[in-house]
Amino acid sequence: MRFPLVSAAALAFLSAPAWSAQSDCMTTATTQQAMNACAGQKLKASDQQLNTTYNALLAKTSKPGGEQLRKAQRAWVAWRDAQCQFDTLGTRQGSVNPMVYTLCVNDLTQQQTKHLAAQLHCEEGDLSCGGQ
Predict the structure, then answer these.
(1) In the chain, what percentage of residues exceed pLDDT 70?
(2) Three-class SS of residue 2?
């Protein structure tokens, strides 16, 4: 089955509120190559923030907690990548695919950073916090 270059789902995906926060270079880029580069820059910054948060949480957790955090993070990365491959299937043959895929990865990376930050800043006695 062939997919159109930009499906209705992909257009909705691109116009989602998560992408609006990334509008600075995305609105000024005039070529697909520039939009791809912009999405890549945003992902790089998000990935650095995730790594900083992850390492801070890892330093704060117990040894068993750290082992579980590493295991969970590896599983999360595999899930994130597979999810974005699925979510961007409709653009797979198009030049927009690298940007759409990167924006998906960026969005999920930002969500994971928030999740890990919540774990990092848990109040004592909060039973939803693990590994500490």
Answers:
(1) 76
(2) coil
